[in-house]
Amino acid sequence: MTASLPDEVVDPNAPVTNMDYFMALEFEEIICPVVQRYADGLLAGKIIGHRCPQCELVYVPPRGYCPIDVLETTEADEVELADRGVVTNYTVVTPVQYYGQEETEPFAKVSVLLDEPGGMLSLQDVLEVPVAEVRIGMRLEAVWVPEAERTVAEIGNRWGGAGGCILGWRATGEPDVSPDQLNDRVF
Amino acid sequence: MADIAIIGHAQSPSWRMADLTEPQFLLPVISEAIASANINRRDIGFTCAGSCDYLSGQTFAFVMNLEAVGAWPPITESHVEMDGAWALYEAWVRLQVGDIDTALVFGSGKSSPGNLSEVFPLQLDPYTLTPLGVDPVSMAALQARALLDAGLVTEQEMAQVAARSRRDAMHNPYAQVSGEFDPEKLLAEPYVTMPLRKHDLPPISDGACAVILATADKAREVCERPVWIRGIDHRIEAHQPGMRDLTQSSSTRLAGERAGVGNAPIDVAELCVSFSHEESVLRRALGLGDEVKINPSGGPLAGNPIMAVGLARIAEAARQVSDFGAHRAVAHASSGQALQQNLVCVLEGD
C-alpha cells in the first residue's frame, strides 16, 4: 500500500484541490479442492463441471454445491464437458480509461452454453470475430493454449473462468442456433 | 415491541485458513441452523446477511454467499456490510411488521486472504486514518494504554482474561485457540505492539454463523425452548479516536440501558472482547459484576471470524439459556475500531 501526500503544507484559504492517492491490497487465497481439480483438468485440456444429482444442472467451474437445491456436490458429481457450444448472451464493453485500464477498443464477453452434457462458461473472449458480429445463437469452439504454455494462475475460487488455458472462442461456421431454443439459459 | 425468539442456530469452526470458499462453508451452517429450528427452508419469510467484500477482496462476494441460502425461486433478502449481529437487528425489525413469522440471519467472513492491518483502515476510513497507518492493533494498543494509565486495568488482569478465555474454549468445538495457560508465563512473552502481547490479540479466523428468528406464535409451535429477545439496541460513536474517551464505551452503555440489561440480574454474558483489555471497558459499560460469567465459549480471543463473531456471541448466549440453564443472558457485538460501535441484546428463557 502506498500513499502519495502533498509535499508542502497547503494554505488553508486556498481553493480545494485534488490529490492523487493510489492504493492496492494484496490477497492470497488457497484454491479450494473443487476448483483445484477443475484447474488441473484445464491443464490437461479437459473442462470439468459438477452435475447436480437432483436438478441435473451442470455447473462450470464447479462450485462444490448446487445453489438451487442447496446440496453439496463432490467428485462423484464430476462430468467432463464439451469444448464447443453456443453464445447465449453477451456484453460489449467500451473501455473507460481509468487508471490501470489496458483495453482501448470495445470488446465482447460472451456466455457459452457448452454442448452435451451442458454447462455454461461465462465472461469468455471471442477471437477473430468483429464485435458487431457477435450474436446470440452463434456456434463457437474453444481455442486452447498449447499444453506446454498453459497456466492456471488466473483461476480463482469465485469468478473461475478458463483464462491461461483457453485463449478464447472462435466461430465454427456452423449455422446459428435459434435464440428461441436458448430461453431460460442465461446462466 | 412484538416478542421475537431465537429458535435455532449453527456455527462453523473458526479456521486460521479455510480451504473452502465462503459459500461452501456457509451452506452446511445455514442448513444446520434451519434443521435445528425444526422448520422448512421455504418457511423463511426474510433472509438477512452480514459480510464484508473487503475481507475477501472480491466485489459482490456477498451475492455469491446467497448461493448457500437456496435463493431460487426468489426470496426476500437483505445484506448489511456489518457483522451478522446487525443483520439480526434488521431481521428483528422486519419481524416487528408482523406479516411474516420466520427469518434467517447469517454472518460470514474469510479474514485469511488479506493483510488485516491494511484492509481495515481502507474499509473504515481511507481518507484520514489510513494515511497515518492506523490499524486495529495500534488502535487497540492506544486504548489499552489509556486504560493502563487510568489504572482501570493491569497487564496481569489482561493476561488473566486471555488465560480464562482459552481455558473455557477447551469445551467449545468451534474454537481455534484453547488450552491451559499460566498468566505469569504469558506475561513473560514479548510485546507485539506495546502494551499488547500476542495473548491480548484475537486470532485471525475464517468462519460463519447462522441464527433463525421467529415470532412468538411460530416459536411456540416449533420450538421446545425458545430464547426470547427481551431487548436489543445499537449505538455508534465518532470514528475519530481523538474525539472520544477510549477508557469508556458510552455507546455500549447507552445500548445496554436501552436493551434493559440492568432491569434484572444477568447470569451470563457473551461479549465481543476482541482484545483482552476490552472486557474491562464492556463490564463497566454494562454494569456486569463479578457474579456474571463472561464468555463461557472463550469469546473472540478463542475464535474470531470477523463478520460472524458478533452474531456468534448471540448464538452462544442463546445456547447458555436453552441448554445450560441460564435464565437471563447478555450478548454484545462490536464494529469499527476500539469498540466504536456496539450492539447489545438481552436474552431470556421462559
Which key features would you list for this structure?
heterodimer; A: 187 residues; mainly beta; three-stranded antiparallel sheet; 1 helix; 27% strand; B: 350 residues; ten-stranded mixed sheet; two-stranded antiparallel sheet; 12 helices; globular
Report on this model:
- The complex is a heterodimer of chains A (187) and B (350).
- In chain A, 6% of the residues lie in helices and 27% in strands.
- Chain A has 187 residues and is mainly beta.
- Chain A has a 5-stranded antiparallel sheet with strand order 8-7-6-9-10, with no helix packed on it.
- The longest helix of chain A has 11 residues, at 33-43.
- The radius of gyration of chain A is 21 Å and the shape is globular.
- Chain B has 350 residues and is α/β, with parallel strands linked by helices.
- Chain B contains 12 helices and 12 strands.
- In chain B, helix 4 (84-96) packs across helix 12 (309-323) and helix 10 (250-259) crosses helix 11.
- Chain B starts with a strand and ends with a strand.
- The chains are: A mainly beta (187), B alpha/beta (350).
- The A-B interface holds A 1, 3, 5, 21, 23, 25-30, 32-35, 63-65, 67-70, 72, 157-159 and B 17-21, 23-24, 27-28, 30-31, 41, 54, 56-58, 61, 64, 66-72, 110, 112-115, 118-119, 122, 126, 130-131.
What share of residues are in beta strands of chain B? 15-25%
Which residue ranges of chain B are poorly predicted, with pLDDT under 50 across at least 5 consecutive positions? none
Strands across the major sheet of chain B, in which order?
3-2-4-7-1-8-12-11-9-10
End-to-end separation of chain B in angstroms reads 17 Å
The residue fraction in helices of chain A comes out at: under 10%
Apparent shape of chain B: globular
Averaging pLDDT over every residue of chain B, what do you get? 96
User: What is the H-and-E element order of chain A?
Assistant: HEEEEEEEEEE
Structural class of chain B: alpha/beta
Share of residues in strands of chain A: 25-35%
Biggest sheet overview of chain B: 10 strands, mixed
The structure class of chain A reads mainly beta
Main sheet attributes: strand count, strand direction, barrel closure of chain A = 5 strands, antiparallel
Radius of gyration based on Cα positions of chain A: 21 Å
Quick one: which chains have the greatest interface? A-B, 26 and 36 residues
Rg estimate of chain B, integer Å = 19 Å
